Amino acid sequence: MVDSAALTIGEVINLLKGDFPDVTVSKVRFLESQGLIDPPRSTSGYRQFTTADVKRLRYILEQQRDHYLPLKIIKSQLTLWERGDETTFVAPVGPDAHELLEEPGDTVDADELLRRSGLPRRHLRALIEDGLLHPIEEPGGPRFSSRDVAVARESTRLLSYGFESRHLRSVRIGAERRVELLDQLTAALRRNHSPEARRQVAETLAACADALGKLSSLVVAAGIRQMLDND
Question: From 2.60.40.1880, 1.10.1660.10, 1.10.3210.10, 3.40.50.280, which CATH number describes the 97-230 domain?
Answer without folding.
Answer: 1.10.1660.10
